[in-house]
Structures are given as structure tokens and as C-alpha cells.
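User: Can you predict the 3D structure for this chain?
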Amino acid sequence: MNDVQRLFSALTLVFTLVLAAACSSGLRPPAGGVGAPAPAAAVERFLQLAGEDQYLEMGWFFGTAEGPILERDPPSEVEKRMYALAMVLRNGGYVVGPGATVPGRVGAAQRFTVRLQKEQRQVEVPVIVVRGPGERWLVEQIDVQAITGTR
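Assistant: Here is the predicted structure, written as C-alpha cells:
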């Protein structure tokens, strides 16, 4: 084997190892699939994951009608954003209220009011979920200003 062939073999091996590492990065959808089968379940699961500090996993339950943000954005960015949301959402308990249709988005989105226990006060937080691919529901929007009081 000449030097060019050895170099090509070495580069092929490096490329294969890098590709294998990228494919095995652990970014597989959860066993039950992305999102949740019902709108309220998406809110519940997202809040559970936030409470468990499962930032990347949260990325499978947060997104738009096109799908979860973990399929769209780099994992490191998703992890940072979900960490920030989890910090704001920290609570001593919560109750997910009944869902309501979002005007202009009948069948495609629902709005929930989540009552969070934040230290000595309760905060009502609007959360919008959207129907994504495969009829799965994703958290699309959380009114963090309702928690932080920055309105």
C-alpha cells in the first residue's frame, strides 16, 4: 500500500468515526414519539421534564406545527433555551387548567392556563400547544412574562 492509499484509508476511518459519533449522539426521539398524543398531555410532560432538568428531552415536546425544535435547531442551542425555560418554570407545584381553542386556529392549537406555585404566590401562565406532525401536540408558546412580571 502506498502513502496516498494509507492517507486515504486513514481519512476514511476518521470520517467514519466522526459520522458514527454524530449518529450516536443520543438525539433519538423518546420511545413514545415526539410531542404528546393530546394537548394537555403535552403541557404536563413538558413541565415534568422541566422539573427533572431534562433539557434536551424538553426539545422533543416544544416546537411548531412543522415539528419539535430539536429536529430544527442545533442540540446545544436547544439545550440552552430549554434550560432557560426550565429555570423560569421552576415551581412548587402546578395545575393545568382546561384547554380552549385559539381563535383563528381551530383544531390546530389550544390555549391552557397553568397555575404555578412560585414561592409564596400563585402565577397563571398562558401556554399554547399546537398540533404537529403525526397528530402529536407540542408546546409552542409559554408566556414567561406572566412569571417574571416583565410586562
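The domain at 34-148 is CATH 3.10.450.50 (Nuclear Transport Factor 2; Chain: A,). Strands lie at 63-64, 67-68, 94-96, 100-101, 109-118, 121-131, 137-142.
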